[in-house]
User: Fold this.
Amino acid sequence: MRLKFPLFLPVVLAAVLCGILSSGPARAVDLALVLLNDVSQSMDDGEFALVKDGYRAAFADPEVIAALIANGSGVAVAYVEFSGKDDVKRVLDWQVLTDAASARAFGEAVAAAPRSSAGNTALSAGLAAAIRMLLDSDFDAARQVVDIASDHPHDGGRCEPIRDAAVAAGITINALPIIDERQIGTIDGRLAYTESRWGSESIVDFYLRTVVGGPGSFVVEARDYRVFGEALKRKLLLEFIASPERDRAAFTVAAADD
Assistant:
């Protein structure tokens, strides 16, 4: 049965908050994290390869592994790709990472997985599916986080009510917006680039305003696909070493030649 968002979400969240939904004993973990990655048609094959290489490198990084191990009960992680509203796929189901071997294996599995789709961008559908994964998981997590990586600069306001309902249930949403500034031609005699702005709002402003939320939430901006891996590393360090008291923040990772 296909879930319809956001209409179903308040009902599910209310059930969770009231303790109506129940299951068997849940496994305790320090963090349950859904890594949600946009693979829509705005990302070409070379950029997709850079993203996959970034996952491999980040989950093999010694600092990331040390931060992961510091979570004594482990970190439950799942990897999800999305493009169009009917193209949301759980590429890697929940895995509990506890050491260097499990972290490296997860990064390698993400890198090896083929691209699941390349349609239009339905940001809200991907976000809603990731939130539902957390609500339906069998983990007793001290923290629940969705992290969304995308170069999509707007969604017509569809993410905001989903974000608000998730935050009300104690879920934090972070974002890794990718600023893709390749020249693609001219418009009215002026150079045009792949990065777009809607009015005066930048892509980072959009994510801060309508997508990101919850305790310690943040945005890590990748100024180029080439630095996606470094941005992902910084994001994982921030998530594995939680700072719920931190005010909402934005960080930038730029290419060396910028």
About this structure: Residues 26-253 form a domain with the Rossmann fold fold (CATH 3.40.50.410).
